[in-house]
């Protein structure tokens, strides 16, 4: 398996390709697109100078791929008559697993302050496999792993480049949540069981399995339509924003996951929220703008994900130990903070290095893994 040029490029962010592969450059460094760029924005700011509103993101080109054209068996399973509501919900969640081309589109749509100027839209995409790593009935864990083949200017394809990406956990009637509280802090949110009856929580985790956000929502099934819509929830800035913005601290948003015959779509409705020194929304002007996001997951066929399979087979036990450590922390603390950097390093770096050694064939040492996890948590979590 090929290695990324630098471990710092292996971030939870979507530093992916805008033209068919993985973007190895930070969004803030991306120049305006050339006139022949394939970027598109039908929904846009039509009277703004085009160069100022060209989408930012990556520029790396990837290998050709083939999209699925027939409805998946997983989608057909959701339509089966006679299912009870919980089983239909479960099948919709499980239908998100599989091989995908992923595309990510974000644009500011409304500004709330005098003199508002919209930031450049963001577009990126890549290829990833979503594994069902646990199915315990009313708990389903889905792990995203990116596998990218990158085409150079000469057309030569390099790769595969493998990166453990984000994770989503789905729990039925979960009343013990851990939600983002702003400024790199998370807190326990215990709900009245009556308020989550018949509902599912989706918890989203970063590449190092640290928390991102968790929300309660409802699955609705009407014929061929199956979608889950969340309550509004706070979440930290994603890498695509954190790398270029310092004028707000929280995304306050809702998500809708819709299952399609050949994949699924995540739509986001986000407010960019400013916090005061007390950690509460600024009294005079709490919101800068509203942002719309559309993340499409389109099934692909014939793509070589074997390097991702191998990575997960070799490192999966280690990442399970990391998840257990986080579960232990959730059980023991009602509030905690995760530091951005310690001695110039981010939390994912030592964990990724250990997992990469396993992928390269190093035998798994549970004692060494436990020690690394303990030291990493002691350094970054308080």
Description of the structure:
- This protein has one domain (7-301).
- The radius of gyration is 21 Å and the shape is globular.
- 19% of the residues lie in helices and 37% in strands.
- Strand 10 (200-205) and strand 11 (211-222) form a beta hairpin.
- By secondary structure, it is α+β, with helices and mostly antiparallel strands.
- The strands form two sheets. It has a ten-stranded antiparallel barrel. Strands 8-9-17 form a three-stranded antiparallel β-sheet, with no helix packed on it.
- It has helices at residues 73-78, 85-94, 239-242, 306-332, 348-359, 366-380, and strands at residues 56-57, 61-62, 66-67, 98-111, 122-135, 139-151, 157-172, 176-182, 185-190, 200-205, 211-222, 225-230, 233-235, 250-260, 263-273, 287-301, 335-337.
- It has six helices and 17 strands.
Keywords for this entry:
three-stranded antiparallel β-sheet; 19% helix; alpha+beta; 6 helices; globular
Could you tell me the radius of gyration in angstroms? 21 Å
Low-confidence stretches: 5-35
- Beta-strand share of residues: 35-45%
Strand order of the largest sheet: 4-5-6-7-10-11-12-14-15-16
User: Would you tell me the structural class of the helices and strands?
Assistant: alpha+beta
> How many distinct folded domains?
1
- Give the overall average pLDDT: 90
Give the beta-strand count.
Answer: 17
Q: What are the secondary-structure elements, in order, as H or E?
A: EEEHHEEEEEEEEEEHEEEHEHH
Largest sheet: 10 strands, antiparallel, barrel
Count up the helices. 6
Net shape: globular
Distance between the termini: 35 Å
Q: Estimate percent helicity.
A: 10-25%
């Amino acid at each position: 398996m090929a290695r990324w040029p630098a471990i710092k490029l292996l971030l939870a962010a979507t530093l992916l390709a805008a033209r068919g592969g993985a973007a190895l450059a930070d969004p803030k460094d991306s120049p305006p697109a050339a006139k022949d760029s394939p970027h598109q924005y039908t929904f846009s700011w039509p009277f703004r100078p085009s160069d100022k509103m060209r989408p930012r993101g990556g520029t790396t080109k990837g290998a050709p791929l083939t999209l699925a054209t027939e409805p998946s068996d997983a989608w057909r399973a959701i339509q089966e008559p006679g299912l009870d509501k919980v089983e239909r919900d479960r099948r919709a969640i499980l239908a998100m697993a599989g091989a995908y081309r992923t595309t990510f589109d974000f644009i500011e749509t409304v500004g709330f302050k005098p003199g508002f100027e919209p930031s450049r839209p963001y577009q990126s995409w890549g290829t990833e496999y979503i594994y069902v790593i646990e199915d315990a009935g009313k708990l389903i864990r889905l792990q995203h792993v990116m596998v990218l083949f990158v085409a150079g200017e000469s057309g030569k394809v390099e790769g595969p480049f493998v990166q453990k990406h984000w994770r989503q956990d789905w729990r039925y009637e979960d009343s013990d949540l851990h939600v983002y509280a702003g400024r790199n802090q998370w807190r326990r949110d215990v709900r009245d069981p009556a308020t989550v009856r018949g509902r599912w929580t989706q918890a989203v985790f970063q590449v190092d399995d640290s928390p991102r956000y968790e929300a309660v929502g409802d699955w609705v099934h009407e014929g061929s339509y199956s979608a889950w819509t969340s309550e509004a929830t706070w979440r930290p800035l994603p890498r695509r924003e954190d790398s270029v913005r310092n004028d707000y601290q929280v995304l306050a948003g809702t998500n809708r996951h819709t299952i399609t015959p050949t994949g699924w779509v995540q739509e986001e409705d986000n407010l960019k929220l400013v916090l005061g020194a007390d950690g509460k929304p600024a009294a005079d002007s709490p919101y800068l703008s509203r942002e719309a996001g559309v993340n499409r997951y389109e099934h692909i066929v014939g793509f070589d994900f074997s390097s991702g399979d191998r990575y997960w087979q070799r490192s999966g036990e280690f990442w399970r130990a990391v998840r257990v450590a986080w579960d232990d922390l959730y059980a023991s603390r009602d509030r905690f903070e995760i530091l951005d950097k310690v001695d110039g390093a981010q939390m994912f770096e030592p964990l990724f290095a250990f997992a990469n050694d396993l992928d390269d064939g190093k035998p798994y040492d549970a004692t060494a893994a436990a020690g690394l996890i303990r030291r990493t948590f002691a350094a970054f979590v308080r």
